[in-house]
Structure prediction request, 253 residues.
Amino acid sequence: MEQISEELFRTQLLDLIKTAKKQGMCVTKEQVEEAFPNMELDQGKLDLIYDYLKNSKITIGEEADLDNLLTKEDKNYLAQYLEEISEFPAFNDTEVKEICKGAFRGDKEAKDKLFLHMLPKVVEISRLYAGQGVLLEDLIGEGNVALTMGMEMLAIEDGPEVLESALAKSVMDALEEAVAGETDIKEQDDKVVKRINLIAQAAEELAKELCREVTIKELAAETDFTEEEIAEAMELTGYKIDYMEKAEDKDGI
Prediction:
């Protein structure tokens, strides 16, 4: 695919994942096919998409078991947290409507009640993002921060009837960002590890050719890596890359 097609594919894939999260970490086969209207999806491409969704803990055509996304640590924290918030009052649908009306007008008591009403919903949303590199405790924490911030923006919404959905969206947006940030960090770490491995392999090959350990300058001259990249790899590994001179001036490259 051309670069622009890759970007479009990535956008459509992320939109599909968002849909899955809203549906409890599952999508139908029809939704997968409809998510990429600009592509001819043969079985090979579908299998790649299905594999990606599976690795993201998303099921195809069946309801996901969200408990399977939780680690033992997550489950322990969840049980404790749910017990804590169970002490807060619960409100029926009629009461929630009146609470939203009051919160929209800026009534502090109503806003406090709406906040308490939304706490279990933050948990529900957070569970959809479990298993993606962020602890459930941190997800709930991020969600509660987003909820707190959203409570200060109620007056700009279209009306009291949309407050719950608007607050839920604020939480989802915050968790999307948290998970995406963790993914970016992991991808960056993976790139660094891959570069170190390639540098180590190149150092071994050149050292065998020269029958001795090699210097940063020599390795840079024989490869596509810059002296700075090689020096960084040496530093990150504690100057323990085999076949590289260890006594080099660490500041001099």
Notes: Residues 16 and 59 are 12 Å apart (CA to CA). Residues 3-64 form a domain with the Annexin V; domain 1 fold (CATH 1.10.220). The mean pLDDT is 84.
